[in-house]
């Protein structure tokens, strides 16, 4: 990001550790409902889909086991763990409170330059929506939150938030009905609170914005029949 020129780098430019890529890929399979509770997750197809060897797949799956997304069945492999609506709401509750505090701190510290970058991100976000570019919609939505977190200047708290955010994939938010409209409404209000230095309003707006994200995701997955499929499989 330089001045008001916003760029989004491709995956290859900032590639994460291979086990992290695997974990992200499988999390998205689980939370999007493409795989269901009790279903075995085979190492080879995942390795092929992500473009890695079997070793980072196993490491990624072990990380997901520690997060409660998968379970290891001795001598058989990994299966998808049950994932409930309350699990999603708990993940978003954690994000909402951490992000809300960061937004409040940002309101007290944010600079004119950082405000200008947020304005530029909002403008690019609108262009992405007009173009129907889901990848850029999600990317600029993420960039807006990242800029607020940077403005908060609270490194440890930001690390905790990043850890929570990793549990909920970002890529398919732009496909969820209502989420884009909610973001278009919430982000300008957040920017106004940051401009005026209103920490309490920034905190409340951020918490509400993220909590609404949980509602949209739960509703979308319910419409896809995720919970009914998992109940019938149990």
From TrEMBL:
Lineage: Bacteria, Bacillati, Actinomycetota, Actinomycetes, Kitasatosporales
Any coiled-coil regions, as ranges: 108-135
Protein name stated in the entry: GntR family transcriptional regulator
Classification via Pfam families: FCD (PF07729), GntR (PF00392)
UniProt xrefs under Gene3D superfamilies: GntR ligand-binding domain-like, Winged helix-like DNA-binding domain superfamily/Winged helix DNA-binding domain
Domain HTH gntR-type: 16-83
Stored InterPro entries: GntR_C (IPR011711), TF_FadR/GntR_C (IPR008920), Tscrpt_reg_HTH_GntR (IPR000524), WH-like_DNA-bd_sf (IPR036388), WH_DNA-bd_sf (IPR036390)
SUPFAM superfamilies: GntR ligand-binding domain-like (SSF48008), Winged helix' DNA-binding domain (SSF46785)
Keywords: Coiled coil, DNA-binding, Transcription, Transcription regulation
Entry-linked SMART domains: FCD, HTH_GNTR
